[in-house]
Structures
1.
Amino acid sequence: DAKTTQPPSMDCAEGRAANLPCNHSTISGNEYVYWYRQIHSQGPQYIIHGLKNNETNEMASLIITEDRKSSTLILPHATLRDTAVYYCIVRVAGGGYNKLIFGAGTRLAVHP
Amino acid sequence: EAQVTQNPRYLITVTGKKLTVTCSQNMNHEYMSWYRQDPGLGLRQIYYSMNVEVTDKGDVPEGYKVSRKEKRNFPLILESPSPNQTSLYFCASSSLAGVVFFGPGTRLTVL
């Protein structure tokens, strides 16, 4: 079973920031938080990941709470092309354990 | 361009006719895997491989075979496809403990 909880759907106006929450209250100290998205039926696309510090890249920012029990993915200026299902995944690092356990994700709809 | 490729992208076949879906990556990744995606069930891992000649079952391996004779290729084989294997299939690869990259998907329909 997925170790994360996400809202099933969210809306966002184009040009505004989209803030997608994720709860992972049972996360272990050696587990990273990963975010992927899936546009229509395309292959899941990697967005960002982090352990305990906030992270930013060209696609998004990831804010992880100090107790690591929840996180927020931020798309700073959402566009229509950001409409997708967003998956928050916790994953053990190292040891060659590369399996990803996908939950239901959050369906983000960006509207004009 | 670094990528995972799959072929074919779409396939309609009949029950019992053996088929192979190919997967190739050009990133020199050790780890490769196959997932299937079904409505209401999400993505589930079928098989994975941690290196050449090393493969193991994932969560839903029944009815599937894989092989890893070369580092870059990881074909998925359905020896006797059945309608319950109608699904969207994704190949994925990564370095050990690295970011997992997915292919574009293969939509399979078994009649």
2.
Amino acid sequence: TQLLEQSPQFLSIQEGENLTVYCNSSSVFSSLQWYRQEPGEGPVLLVTVVTGGEVKKLKRLTFQFGDARKDSSLHITAAQPGDTGLYLCAGPNQAGTALIFGKGTTLSVSS
Amino acid sequence: EPEVTQTPSHQVTQMGQEVILRCVPISNHLYFYWYRQILGQKVEFLVSFYNNEISEKSEIFDDQFSVERPDGSNFTLKIRSTKLEDSAMYFCASSVGFPGRSYNEQFFGPGTRLTVL
């Protein structure tokens, strides 16, 4: 069974701090996606990483895909209150017909 | 920017009643999905749909559930006899292709909050 474990589960920081959240699995994924979800809304796609070792940057967000394609990380530089939300990682199942989600990291950034 | 839409945003029903949740996927997408998220838990896959038939379904998607694409734009999820444990957010998603092929991203709708009393 493919599982995605995210850590930490909760993170509360001050504006301006840096943070990293992790997404780990014992299974190899062909790609991993990162989503952000606001309360009462659907997940919004942030990025897809495909190649082992790949690094993608989206403004203050840096996403990395592990060399073995079993893990990924999201690093936020100089967090802002607008970064508050639930960050989800997801990857395709073995059949490639659905996404498997992690439980997410709830980030709270206070000013 | 094209987006997935869902109606209603909130549905309250009595246990045992039938509900139909509606979705309009992004127009050029060919693959459609339903997921659910019970409060405080992770997003769980229910079913994927392509070419007017189910491609894959999870253990959650039992005989009480069905999906349909009644016309060229709508994609529906029917729950025949709702149970208390069906209370959740239900998300529709669509993609150009399946996620395992060429990393076709799935785009999610805003969800329908189903409350079964």
